[in-house]
Amino acid sequence: MSAGAPWRIVFTGPESTGKTWLTGRLAAELGLPFSGEAARELAESAGRALVPADIERVARRQIELEEAALAEARRCGAPAVLHDTDLVSTVVYGWHYNGGCPDWIERAAAARRADLHLLLLPDVPFVAEPGVRGDAADRAAQLPLFRAGLARLAGAVEEIGGDWEERAARARERVLARLALPASAD
User: Fold this and answer.
1) At what angle do helices 19-30 and 164-179 cross, to 10 degrees?
2) Is there a domain that residue 104 lies in?
């Protein structure tokens, strides 16, 4: 992180591990700007599952969402911004679902490295969302892809598991530690 720039903290991991829920919850609790997940947004607006041809549109939209959240953090003087996924997720899902990812997206993922990635483990019940995510069996195959992608493209990575409330508490603790905020911050 450069001096004065907001920290970028990303919630990432296999499908149905609580990324969207945790990003929204902690953003509200800590008063931090956040960006949503472009793939989810685009699948919901299209009313269908994404196809390989959508990956570049997903990546461009993910960058837009992240930049808007960063601009809001700068505008309001927030110490950090939370991201519900980032381009690393786009790369991993590209490899998982499409067997590859355009080189420019992989280069952009490495160049846009966040300060901290919180890798959510698939140890909570799977919640089906037809048209938005795959099935429960995909999660086991995705975890090693996320670990490898994060090792190659990300900086600091911390894994978070446990039931819903345990993972929320652990994620909040990691965010507060990164920001050096007191644990009682509201």
Assistant:
1) 50
2) yes
- Residue 76 sits at φ, ψ, to 5 deg, of -95, 0
Q: Is residue 67 part of a domain?
A: yes
Alpha helices (runs of H) in 55-132, residue ranges in sequence order = 55-76, 87-93, 103-111
Tokens matching residue 89: 């997720």
**In the prediction, which pLDDT does 101 show?**
96
Domain at 77, CATH number: 3.40.50.300
Amino acid of residue 12: T
Q: Is residue 184 part of a domain?
A: no
Per the structure, the count of domains in the chain is 1
Tell me the C-alpha distance between 180 and 87, whole Å: 26
Start-to-end Cα distance in the chain: 24
Residue 101 within any structural domain of the chain: yes
CA 163 and chain centroid, separation: 19
| Token pair belonging to 98 | 């499409």
Q: Left (φ > 0), alpha (ψ -120 to 50) or beta: where does 182 sit? A: beta
The CB density around residue 179, as the number of other CB atoms within 10 Å, is 18
Q: Are strands 156-160 and 116-120 parallel, antiparallel or unpaired?
A: parallel
Among 1, 14, 2, CA closest to 159:
14
Q: Predicted confidence band at 179 (pLDDT cuts at 50, 70, 90)?
A: confident
pTM metric for this prediction = 0.91
Identify the domain containing residue 81 by its residue range: 7-179
